[in-house]
Each structure stands twice: as C-alpha cells, then as structure tokens.
C-alpha cells in the first residue's frame, strides 16, 4: 500500500472511517524487563476508499515484525476448536473431500483446524509465518511451511507439485498488506476445479454492532462482500456462495472458484447479501463517515461506568488479554487506575504485560483469589464461553461486564 492510497485500487485516501489515536501493536505483549524502555505507538486511523469502499489502515509496521513471533494460539478457545471441526465436517460432506485431495490452509496457526482433516486421512499443508506457532503444529504432525503467502509462495508450492483442492484461510485476509499479491497467489495454487473458503469479520456487523475494537494494526483491511467480490473478480476468481457466521461478532465465509467453473454456480445468497449491504448504505460514502461518533460515545459511556464503579470502591478485573481488548483499553486510556488485574487462559500470555497499558497478565485462578466485583470481558465474541467458565464469580456477587456494542452489566 502506497502511503495515502488504497491497497486494492490505488485511489487516494482522504476520508476517515474511524480515528483511534495512537496505539501500540495489539499483540506486542511485553516482558517485565521491557517495561521501562521505549514502546512504539502508531496511528490507529482507519480510512475508507471512496471508489471500492475498502476500509483500511496504513502500514506502519511490516508483517514480518508483527507475525514472525506471535502470541496468539488458536487452540486455547474451545468454541473456536468446535467451529473448526464443524467446518471440516461440512466441507467433506458438501464437496466430498477424501484421501485423494489436498487441503491447504493459509495462516494455519497451531494446527487447530488441519488436525481434523488429518484425523480423516486427508492430506494437509499449513502455511504459517510465525515460527513459534508453526512448531506447535508440526508437533501435532501437521506439515507446515514457515512463510508468508503470496504469489511467490504459491508458485513455489506448484513447482513442487502441490495444488489445493480446498484452499482456506480463517481470519487472514484482513492481515494482508499486499492484498492483490495475496489473492493472485490464491488463484495460482488453486486446482482448476478447486474451492477457496475465506472467513473474515464482516464490516457490516462491525458497523452495526459498533465493534471498533476489532480495528488494530495487525488488521490492515476490513471487508464488506461488496468489496471482496471486486477484489476476487480482479484476479479471475468468482465468489459463488457466502455464509454468515456468528464468530468474531459476525463474520462471512465466502466460497470462491476460478471464473468460468461451470460446476460452481452462484447461489442466491451472494446476490441477497450484496443487496442487503447496499440497503444498509455500504455503497454510500456518507454511511462510513458517520461511524466515528458512535465510537466516541462508547468511549464516554465506558469511562463513566468505570469512574462510578471506582468511586463506589469496586474492584474491577479484565478477562482476556485479547488484541481487541488492547485497542479498547488504549483508545479509552484505561490503565491500573481503573483495572486491578487481567487474566487469560493462555500460558503463552501469562506473566507478560499488555502493550501500552502495561497491565500484568495472570492465570484465571487469580479471579477466585481476589474476588473482583466486576469482570470486564474483553474478548466479547466468546462471552458465552467465558461466562460459563467463570460463572463462580456470582458466588460473591461478582458481575460480568461487556463493553461492546455498549456497556452492559450481565445478569
């Protein structure tokens, strides 16, 4: 992406979608020895392209520095593992994949999904840029290439005799700074009759539910179906089906194939969703320009709640050292003056400190020890899983608080 120009169509970016000020990288967790050193902050300013309506950030830090050593391991969410297994079953039933087919996943993380294809004797290949995460996948017996995906990687795989019958990527499309190179690579590595599925947070849901905390530097782009169809069409790929998912506060799963593949006729769901997006105003620039005030109002409401709670002497803890939580805390200026401690189930985060706010990350057992009055759920997209897991806080009158789309104290 050229500075100030759309990473897809090259149009000059002049329209603000949402300005969240200066923020550190949301997954740049700190060790204790780094707390007194300088910490880089970058503008977290999302623009919208007036031509293709791609919402996007400028690139301030390279993907290599963001993703080469990553703190997020997918397998620590039970609900996400279930989602992955259900996906595997659905793809096999719908398209008949078996031991004669090849499944390739881009941004395969710790093998959380490919393990379910492997269990069914279907050949798999993971592509994962974070070496520390890829090593966990390899320990599970998942073949994994440590690299970023694009046309170069795609050609290398093809040269070695590999192509995908099923090519998938969950929550990776948003992480790609060179969008055109990435999608061009999809076309190269896909077999003639192959299927692509991509899952990504739905921009329409982000706007409807005020999910501004899903904006962070690791997410370079934010997609509507209107925009994704344009991007894939430019590279000779046709979106023939779409499903709306509950994951991450509302996501899309698109199905794509080579243009001209007569076996993959477009379903009614594509045109229906395109029409809904148009009706919601996603083809009108003014709709995007009104989003910023909703964000500011949420900030004011959350701070009012926290100020009042602290005036009443309440103890407040946060559950989940999530990237979206780091966006929220840094944008709202919420630090140890409001939050007593943070807990997270992942041992890869425990003992570290949140970027920007420097709040220490503890094991969830600390909640039972400290008995906070409020537990603020930062990864609100899995609030049902968390409220079930931590239901015991009600023993002492503790309550759960969800900050998005607006502050809500759960009964």
From TrEMBL:
Tell me the keywords, alphabetical order: Methyltransferase, Transferase
One of the record's GO molecular function terms: methyltransferase activity
Example GO biological process: methylation
Q: Does the keyword ATP-binding apply?
A: no
According to the entry, every stretch annotated as the C-methyltransferase domain falls at: 247-405
In terms of domain of life, where is this protein from? Bacteria
Looking at the Swiss-Prot or TrEMBL record, what is one Pfam family this protein matches? Answer: Methyltransf_13
Output the InterPro entries linked to this UniProt entry: Methyltransf_Zn-bd_dom_put, MeTrfase_14
Domain Methyltransferase putative zinc binding positions: 6-67
* Protein name (database record): Class I SAM-dependent methyltransferase
Record the organism.
Geomonas subterranea
């Amino acid at each position: 992406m050229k500075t100030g120009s759309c990473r897809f169509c090259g149009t000059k970016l002049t329209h603000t979608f949402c300005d969240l000020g200066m923020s550190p990288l949301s997954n740049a967790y700190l060790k204790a020895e780094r707390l007194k050193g300088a910490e880089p902050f970058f503008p977290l300013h999302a623009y919208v392209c007036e031509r293709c309506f791609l919402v996007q950030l400028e690139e301030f830090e390279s993907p290599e520095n963001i993703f080469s050593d990553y703190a997020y391991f997918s397998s620590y969410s039970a609900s996400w593992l279930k989602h992955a297994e259900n996906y595997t079953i659905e793809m096999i039933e719908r398209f008949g994949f078996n031991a004669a087919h090849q499944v390739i996943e881009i941004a395969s993380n710790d093998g959380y999904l490919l393990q379910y294809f492997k269990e069914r004797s279907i050949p798999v290949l993971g592509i994962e840029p974070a070496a520390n995460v890829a090593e966990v996948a390899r320990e599970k017996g998942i073949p994994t290439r440590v690299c970023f995906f694009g046309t170069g990687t795609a050609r290398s795989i093809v040269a070695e005799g590999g192509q995908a019958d099923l090519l998938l990527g969950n929550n990776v499309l948003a992480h790609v700074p060179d969008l055109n190179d990435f999608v061009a690579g999809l076309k190269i590595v896909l077999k003639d009759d192959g299927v692509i599925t991509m899952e990504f947070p739905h921009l329409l849901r982000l706007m409807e539910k005020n999910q501004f905390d899903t904006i962070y530097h690791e997410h370079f782009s934010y997609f509507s179906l209107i925009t994704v169809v344009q991007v894939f069409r430019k590279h000779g790929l046709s979106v023939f089906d779409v499903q709306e998912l509950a994951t991450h506060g509302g996501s899309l799963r698109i199905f794509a194939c080579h243009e001209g593949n007569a076996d993959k006729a477009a379903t009614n769901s594509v045109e229906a969703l395109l029409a809904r997006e148009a009706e919601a105003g996603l083809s009108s620039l003014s709709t995007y320009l009104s989003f910023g005030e909703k964000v500011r109002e949420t900030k004011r409401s959350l701070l009012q709640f926290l100020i009042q709670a602290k005036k009443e002497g309440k103890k407040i803890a946060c559950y989940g050292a999530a990237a979206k939580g780091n966006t929220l805390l840094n944008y709202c200026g919420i630090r140890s003056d409001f939050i007593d401690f943070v807990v997270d189930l992942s041992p890869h985060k425990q003992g570290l400190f949140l970027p920007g706010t420097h709040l220490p990350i503890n094991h969830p057992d600390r909640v039972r020890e400290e008995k906070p009055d409020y537990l603020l759920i930062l990864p609100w997209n899995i609030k049902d899983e968390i409220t079930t897991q931590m239901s015991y806080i009600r023993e002492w009158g503790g309550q759960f608080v969800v900050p998005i789309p607006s502050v809500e104290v759960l009964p």
